[in-house]
Amino acid sequence: MATELPCLCIAWSWGVGTRPRVGPMPDAKGKAIDGALVSSMLTNVAVKAAFGSLAFIPGCVVFRGAALRCLCGGLGMGFGAGMAWTQADLHLRHPELVPMPASLTSEAERMKAEGAARMASLRARIGF
User: Fold this and answer.
1) How big is the CA angle at 115 (ends 113 and 116), to the nearest 5 degrees?
2) Is the pTM of this model over 0.70?
3) Which of 20, 31, 34, 109 could form a cystine bridge with 95, CB 3.0-4.6 A?
């Protein structure tokens, strides 16, 4: 015959002398998740992780060992993916405040336009 013991983790998590809050769960105001939204968010994570991986370049300049260079790249990828994941989470929780991340094709077109504009301004400065 097994005896059930009361769970002491509830007392630890709320502290001594406080009562747990009991009531209805708040209404979720988030956005419905579908395949296109997940694809857009994962694309955003991949693009920002790729940009974060460019931290290998200063790592190669500053450090001589391969381990520290890889650490710089990994940290950059982690920070990039973390920022994208945070943006996706905020968009799911507050879709009216945070815009949805762009798809891969629109993101590539935007980067292409920005790159062309920067090259044009650089050529104008040089005199080409």
Assistant:
1) 65
2) no
3) 31
